[in-house]
Amino acid sequence: MKELTHFVNGQQVKGTSGRFADVYNPALGEVQARVPLASKAELDAAVAAAAAAQPAWGATNPQRRARVMMEFVRLLNRDMDKLAEALSSEHGKTIPDAKGDVQRGLEVIEFCIGAPHLLKGEFTDSAGPGIDMYSMRQPLGVVAGITPFNFPAMIPMWKMGPALAAGNAFILKPSERDPSVPLMLAELLKEAGLPDGILQVVNGDKEAVDAILDNPTIQAIGFVGSTPIAEYIYGRGCSNGKRVQCFGGAKNHMIIMPDADMDQAADALVGAGYGAAGERCMAISVAVPVGDETADRLIEKLVPRIEKLKVGPYTAGNDVDYGPLVTAQAKERVLGLINSGVEQGAELVVDGRNFNLQGYESGYFIGPSLFDKVTPDMEIYKQEIFGPVLSTVRAKTYEEALGYAMDHEYGNGTAIFTRDGDTARDFAARVNVGMVGINVPIPVPLAYHTFGGWKKSGFGDLNQHGPDAFRFYTRTKTVTSRWPSGLKEGGEFHFKQMD
């Protein structure tokens, strides 16, 4: 049995807590490794080592730090196949999807190569007689990231890339379900020239999370996961005086107007709803066709596309559309929600519950399911399913459809498919959701913009990646400077007005 490690001070370090978690191959339902779960003492020791290493890294000029990011990009491209294979074996994603996971993280690292520009302050000369004022962006010190299972490459890079480029030391607590890729990323950063101790990967569960939240040295925490845990981390972290950004659950609506290209909309829904087995916070899980005629046309287009989806292990080739769910518990939860939809009166048009793959009977596979005539009081509408399930909610008018997206407690992403520019502009302006797609089903911003949801999908005032990330991982110091030509007599006991 393979035993994984932590990564501390540039070395793979065995756990000392005596506690482990099993790491599964979700296609087979078999344990393939075990990962150590850190104690509070182990976490605190990693933080202390990071704090000792950070001042020198923070004092390194931004251009040299950016060169480490540049070399990291080269190494990520070199090892893309190896990273994708490890990711797929633990998560279950197809190889193309796993490569996309790495690629979207890599793009944020590319953006971080521009850190010297992003870290520039402001300057005003002659703000007063002989007085200059300037601001500096300085690293916070030691910061941390707590990242989820569904993007084990992308989200760690979204967090640690800007933090490291800004001069911080970073503590990464990845998901214990698929921890191998984060450990591989740490090795690549060391190879790229990152000094020892600046990136520590500490595997763990709630004990490690609480240790991060309570450690006084850690100045900021970034989190991605479910909303209940996001609320917990945000509340406890803020109460401990830390800067915290947390991104939680989602229920992303796609509105289909009567004038939409129905083939384009159906293709978009199938990819956005079932890709990665629906285990994406930006998955479209609710289709909202406007008008019964639009709904009937949409369902007619969707059914044959869904029934043709190829479900299987990543080893079955690149034409597999999606793989298994990550754990047996995840599979049981999704099946339970599908059953609740049937019990509450939704029409199950395509039923994936009895999917069985020969040779992989113990794997965590679920076939694709499609519901029609879902209503907002149903659990399948209220909850984030995080599985290959698409719900159709019929709306009579555009205003009713807009209301579904606006009234839901989650506000991560949304989309509208239409040929009408006025409708699209109105939707983008009014909808209270953080990321909006117009004829784009999964509106994940590119690395030089920022990613973040509204309402119960996001907690904190700054988003992930893009310029916001550098604001989050730095603080501004403003200096007022005067170099008098000669000594003045006596002191001044009041604020002098500027001439």
Q: What does it look like?
A:
- The protein is an alpha/beta fold and 499 residues long.
- It is built from 16 helices and 23 strands.
- The strands form six sheets. Strands 15-16-17-14-13-19-20 form a seven-stranded mixed beta sheet, with helices on both faces.
- The chain has two domains: 2-248 and 457-479, Aldehyde Dehydrogenase, Chain A, domain 1 (3-Layer(aba) Sandwich); 252-438, Aldehyde Dehydrogenase, Chain A, domain 2, CATH 3.40.309.10.
- The protein has helices at 40-59, 62-78, 80-91, 95-112, 115-118, 154-165, 180-192, 206-214, 227-239, 262-274, 292-307, 328-343, 379-382, 398-407, 421-430, 467-472; strands spanning 2-3, 6-8, 11-13, 20-25, 30-36, 123-128, 131-139, 142-146, 169-173, 199-201, 218-224, 243-247, 252-256, 284-289, 347-350, 369-372, 389-392, 410-411, 413-417, 435-438, 454-455, 458-459, 474-482.
- It starts with a strand and ends in a 17-residue tail after the last strand.
- Its EC number is 1.2.1.27.
- GO terms for molecular function: methylmalonate-semialdehyde dehydrogenase (acylating, NAD) activity.
- Keywords: NAD, Oxidoreductase.
- It comes from Rhodovulum marinum.
- This is methylmalonate-semialdehyde dehydrogenase (CoA acylating).
Q: How many H/I helical runs? A: 16
| Corresponding CATH superfamily of the largest domain | Aldehyde Dehydrogenase, Chain A, domain 1
| CATH C-level of the largest domain | Alpha Beta
Low-confidence stretches: none
Helix and strand composition category:
alpha/beta
CATH architecture of the largest domain: 3-Layer(aba) Sandwich
Distance between the termini: 75 Å
Mean pLDDT: 95
Strand arrangement in the largest pleated sheet: 15-16-17-14-13-19-20
Rg on CA atoms, Å: 25 Å
Strand content: 15-25%
